[in-house]
Design a protein that fits this description.
heterodimer, A: about 280 residues, 2 domains, four-stranded antiparallel sheet, about 10% helix, globular, B: mainly beta, Maltoporin, Chain A, five-stranded mixed sheet, about 5% helix, disordered N terminus, signal (chain B), membrane (chain B), receptor (chain B)
């Protein structure tokens, strides 16, 4: 189990907290190092869902440009049976995920655990981004339970626990999320773990006391592959380094080659509970 | 390998051919004894010199000295920083035991250092170079952050020594990293020498006698770290009468009790201090209890205790007992029921037996132990979670000093250390047994070293100090060894000009596992094993010293070049905690450091101080390896502690017998830091909120603005009926310069729409002008 996101991270932010209270700040003009823009791809394949993809490129950090879309890139998805699906440039908003995308397929995807997909993106500048992703196996959530604290009515809050069985013969990675009511809104809890210390065991993941009576919670357990786990870890580290003088800035560990970004196949289990 | 063998044989040969010559011309006798303060406290490091003969010795850690002199009348100069120089004429007709007592230069509290020219002359004549000696008395006079006197921060004012960031006590010596310093407290290793994430050192100035910092030309008795040795000696306590001293400061208070164990037989000293942030924060939390939006301020404090006692068993035997216990305590109770406790600290102890076989031969044998650990505990309802790490050593060492002849003084000895590395312990469990995770990664290691060195006075102008240290380390079935030649030499061009040269090879068998920009209490010590080879460095330095102004000033210019091999770092995203395969996370590279240090010091008269200027480069290179592109794609980069220019000026002026004025000024080039080149938008699986992710190109490719600061201090001494009292005013950063600490980036939002319209860089400074008043007393 990886405990970096919880206690150690909190403790490493302690000096920042202490220093911030003495801190004096001012705006400064600086000239940052420059370099060529890199292709950025973000794509999550899901069984039964039409593939959508966002292709952009990196922009200078202090640029006023928020993001750049690239209409002239060619995006090809190779399915497990070897057929190629060229995604069309058709920017839009996916209402299900509340995400913008730049390219979309014409048909729904069929994905089964063990299926491998390939992504190939080229543009007229000669940039070439590739990626390969395999759908992980399904890990069921065995139970979800919660417990309220002893505080007076009106102040009572509950913690939530979810349990699942980790497979013994493989190195596994998970993403655990809890949303209130809808999954396309902010998460209440979101962290990643590996099974380094819990291999083959019944794993318990949970929260602190933070939920109110009658809350409707959606608990999601994603079984993910190592590249996606490392990508999330590195983006988290890179973002945390901004404003933390004790952090060593981390390079992004993309799941793709020839650019930056993530290409993965999702497999998750989900349970909805009402805290009573 | 052939080179090493050749060097080894050459050194042995030099030892043989430089064996004692038969006594001729004039009979010589050995003069030996102790140098003590007028309070009878021993003065380690005091010098006993015969200027007319161009000879002299330094008292050892017990204050014992032994010097071979020609028969007849000799003029001696006995001196020590902070004490009045004593001149004595003796008629030497036989081997003689003679102890000296030095009077304090002023009273005990905050006196200006007055020092005889003998010490500067000794420094000029000593073959040892690249060494800085500082007494707690000096450190106490200088202005300090929050008025907290810190001997390590005072060392940062010496050339060749960089700090790790504003206000921190970490030392980066001649391009070495923070873990490459060997901190010794009365011969016992201290693994984490700081409190509060490096803002304060663990060395309580009330208990410290002196500190020696070796930057290069390391004597053969020291080993185990690449870049420096910080040898801290505690005071032995007043052997004449019970005394109480202490101070009340802005953030902490101190109390020291000392006195005789049995008059004439020994003495003791107990010193403690504690911060009191927590007393105020608890009150603030109490006042805000029940406020719906109030987040309690975490509890934090640190304390430490020092203990030292010595007892004379007989004319030739004395024992010394030293103890240190320090803890940083942090506690946090969140409003959602998640409680965290976090404490860390050192426990150190040593017992030393000093035995004098004869005026020419004595030995110190020390048994010591040290333990550094941190513990984190979380509790939520029935769930408990704990992580901890520690390093624990048990060591024994013996050091002989043998005045072989008038021209040869040998030092030889051996040391053995048993290391226990608690690399990571983790447990998570629940009351109902549904959660039960335990992990314990630990190793042991044994480190040994033997050494011999000879201080060879070839003639009046040429003096050599050369030696050899052989070291070995084993962890499990892995064995490593090293040959460490040491050399230092001085040639006097004239009575006031010396040329010096030194060379040292060092091995380091234990490594600090950290991937942060600074050392944190959660960093882990790790042994050399499997693929993690020992770190190694070679340093050559040369310099010239001039005694100027009728002996009042010493101007020194030193240049150095250091090669560092098998330097360690970690791959991006390395899992450093509770990892049984931590070896796989290491990356290895090489380093180089070179520079020039110019140093002018004045230690005589009412106005004393020094000016130091360092021009230096430090570089690291980690080529592609172990399935990675290395660091910085294998290109050379500057570590964060690389500073091109560093200027320090320290002035102490005795205005009157009751007023002392002090000031220090620091200027240094900006330190390298890593800033992002570009960014991209990361929406995640669901796009409720997108993230802006920075892309970092090369490591440390940007430099912060230069750093400069002026500190001022005033010491006013009262005239109480009993004892001594003073009031010390420190003004840190007197002209309130906003020095850069780090840079971060912030979104700029449209006030109307709240949409992001750009980004801006913001520079954070840590400390504005901070005045602090400290009251010190002694009864």
């Amino acid at each position: 189990m990886n405990f970096r996101p919880t206690s150690l991270r909190l403790l490493h932010t302690l000096p920042v907290f202490l220093l911030a209270n003495c801190g004096l700040q001012k705006d400064i003009d600086i000239e940052l190092p420059s370099g060529p823009a890199q292709l950025v791809a973000e794509c999550y394949l899901e069984d039964g869902i039409t593939p959508r993809l966002t292709v952009t490129e990196t922009v200078p950090y202090l640029s006023t440009t928020e993001t750049i879309t690239l209409p002239e890139v060619t995006v090809v998805l190779t399915l497990p049976n070897g057929t190629h699906d060229t995604l069309q440039y058709a920017p839009g908003l996916d209402r299900r995920t509340r995400k913008t995308y730049t390219h979309i397929s014409k048909r729904r995807l069929t994905a089964r655990p063990g299926n491998t997909f390939q992504l190939d993106i080229t543009d007229k500048q000669g940039r070439h981004l590739t990626g390969t992703a395999t759908m992980p196996t399904t890990i069921p959530i065995e139970s979800v339970e919660w417990k309220f604290n002893d505080k007076p009515e009106g102040e009572r809050q509950a913690y939530v626990l979810a349990r699942f069985q980790d497979p013994a013969n493989t190195t596994d990675f998970y993403r655990f999320q809890i949303h209130k009511n809808f999954v396309n809104k902010d998460t209440e809890s979101d962290y990643n773990v590996d099974d380094r210390l819990t291999n083959g065991q019944l794993v318990t993941l949970g929260t602190s006391y933070r939920f109110n009576p009658q809350d409707t919670l959606v608990i999601s357990l994603y079984h993910i592959d190592q590249p996606y786990y490392q990508f999330m870890q590195s983006t988290d580290d890179a973002r945390s380094a901004n404003g933390n003088p004790f952090a060593q800035p981390s390079a992004i560990r993309s799941t793709v080659q020839g650019g930056v970004g993530v290409f993965t196949v999702l497999n998750y289990q989900r349970k909805t509970v009402i805290l009573k | 390998m052939r080179f090493r063998l050749l060097l080894f044989v050459s050194l042995l040969g030099l030892l043989v051919v430089s064996a004692p010559l038969p006594a001729w011309a004039q009979a010589r006798f050995t003069l030996s004894g102790y140098v003590r303060a007028d309070s009878k406290e021993a003065l380690p490091g005091a010098t006993v010199a015969a200027p007319a003969l161009g000879t002299g010795v330094t008292a050892d850690s017990t204050g014992f000295y032994s010097v071979s002199l020609p028969a007849g009348t000799q003029d001696l100069v006995i001196s020590f920083i902070g004490y009045q120089t004593l001149t004595r004429t003796i008629n030497l007709t036989k081997n003689q035991r003679l102890s000296f007592s030095l009077a304090s230069a002023n009273n005990e509290l905050g006196e200006v250092v007055v020092q005889g020219s003998g010490t500067l002359e000794q420094k000029l004549r000593a073959p040892q170079m690249s060494v800085e000696r500082l007494t707690a008395r000096e450190a106490k006079l200088l202005p300090a952050l929050f008025g907290e006197v810190d001997i390590l921060k005072t060392l940062q004012l010496k050339p060749g020594v960089q700090n790790g960031g504003e206000g921190t006590s970490g030392l980066f010596v001649r391009g070495g990293s923070a873990d490459q310093n060997l901190f010794l407290l009365d011969d016992a290793v201290v693994y984490n020498p700081s409190h509060l994430f490096g803002l304060f050192s663990v060395f309580n100035s009330d208990a410290v006698q002196s500190v020696d910092l070796y930057k290069g030309g390391f004597p053969a008795q020291y080993g185990g770290r690449l870049s420096s040795v910080v040898d801290v000696k505690l005071r032995q306590g007043n052997p004449e009468k019970i005394g109480v001293s202490g101070g009340i400061g802005l953030i902490s208070s101190r109390l020291t009790v000392e006195g005789p164990v049995k008059k004439g037989k020994g003495s003791f000293l107990v010193s403690g201090r504690r911060t009191y942030f927590d007393i105020f924060t608890r009150q603030i939390n109490k006042l805000n209890e029940g406020s719906p939006d109030y987040n309690p301020i975490p509890d934090y404090y640190f304390y430490d205790f020092n203990f030292k006692a010595n007892y004379k068993l007989g004319d030739n035997d004395q024992v010394f007992l030293t103890g240190y216990l320090g803890r940083d305590i942090f506690g946090f109770n969140s409003t959602n029921g998640f409680n965290i406790s976090f404490n860390w600290g050192n426990t150190v102890g040593s017992l030393r037996w000093n035995h004098v076989f004869s005026p020419k031969l004595y030995v110190n044998t020390t048994v010591s132990g040290t333990d550094y650990k941190y513990q984190i505990g979380n509790q939520l309802d029935q769930f408990g979670f704990g992580i901890s790490s520690n390093i624990r050593d048990q060591a024994i060492r013996t050091d002989f000093d043998y005045a072989l002849s008038k021209r040869h003084a040998l030092k030889f000895g051996a040391t053995v250390t048993n290391h226990q590395f608690g690399v990571g312990r983790l447990n998570a469990n629940s009351g109902d047994g549904t959660l039960n995770i335990n992990s314990d990664v630990h190793y042991t290691g044994q480190e040994a070293g033997v050494y011999i060195s000879d201080n060879f006075r070839v003639n009046k102008n040429l003096q050599l100090d050369y030696g050899l240290r052989l070291t070995g380390f084993q962890s499990g079935s892995d064995h490593f060894g090293g040959i460490e030649p040491r050399f230092a030499g001085r040639y006097s061009i004239s009575p006031k000009t010396s040329l010096k040269l030194s060379y040292a090879q060092m091995y380091q068998y234990v490594h600090l596992v950290t991937n942060s920009g600074a050392t944190l209490p959660t960093d882990i010590w790790y042994p050399s094993r499997l693929n993690v080879k020992p770190q190694r460095s070679q340093q050559v330095a040369t310099g010239v010293s001039f005694l100027l102004g009728n002996g009042k000033f010493l101007l020194t210019d030193e240049v150095y070049y250091k090669w560092a091999h098998h330097q360690v770092d970690f791959r991006d995203g390395a899992q450093l905690f509770a990892n049984s395969d931590l070896d796989a996370e290491f990356l290895f590279g090489n380093g180089w450091a070179y520079g020039n240090e110019l140093y002018l010091e004045k230690k005589q008269g009412r106005t004393t101080g020094w000016i130091g200027y360092t021009l230096a480069w430090t570089k690291r290179k980690f080529p592609p390896q172990r399935g990675t592109t290395g660091i910085n794609n294998g290109e050379t980069f500057y570590p964060t502690y690389d500073r091109r220019h560093n200027l320090t000026a320290v002035v102490l002026h005795q205005l009157s017998t009751r007023f002392n004025l002090t000031g220090s000024f620091v200027f240094s080039s900006g330190n390298p830091t890593t800033l992002p080149q570009s960014r991209f938008i990361y929406q995640d699986i669901y796009g409720a909120n997108y993230n802006v992710v920075p892309v970092y190109p090369e490591r440390n490719s940007y430099r912060l603005a230069s750093y400069h600061r002026l500190d001022l201090g005033v010491v006013y001494k009262f005239r109480p009926r009993h004892g001594e009292q003073d009031l010390t005013l420190s003004i840190y950063n007197a002209y309130n310069h906003r020095n850069p600490y780090f840079i971060y980036f912030d979104q700029v939002k449209d006030e109307q729409t709240n949409l992001v319209i750009g980004y801006r860089a913001r520079q954070v400074s840590l400390f504005p002008v901070i005045p602090a008043l400290t009251y010190n007393f002694k009864f």
